[in-house]
Amino acid sequence: xxxxxxxxxxxxxxxxEDGNLLICPECAHEWTPKLENENNEDNIIRDSNGNVxxxxxxxxxxxxxxxxxxxxxxxxxTKVKNIRLIHDPADGEHDIDCKVEGFGSMLLKSKVVKKx
Length: 116
Hints:
By secondary structure, this protein is mostly beta strands. The protein folds into 2 domains: 1-33, N-terminal domain of TfIIb (Single Sheet), CATH 2.20.25; 42-115, SH3 Domains (SH3 type barrels). The chain is 0% helix and 30% strand. The chain has strands at 16-18, 21-23, 30-31, 59-61, 65-66, 73-74, 79-80, 84-85, 94-100, 104-109, 113-115. It has a 3-stranded antiparallel β-sheet with strand order 1-2-3, with no helix packed on it. It is elongated. The model has no long low-confidence stretch (mean pLDDT 87).
């Protein structure tokens, strides 16, 4: 017999499985169990399509990006090689550190790139 966790809502020990859900018969709370490989889900950075990004990957910019303080634009389709991920960004949004050819070093948001 499986050793199922107690209900996180009422702490009942009578939980049971129904497909991929765990259900508490006492308070009717339903939840999905956290798997061991999902514990680090917060540290995973994904591109605009949901693909997992890693250090050293190459990505493509999916829309034109206007640069602050200038009239230059990084065009859609620009390839960026050898990215470095920032897992705890200071501003909370720009989670890719890279060098864009012709523009130099800069920070990008993962939601504006796709993995090649």
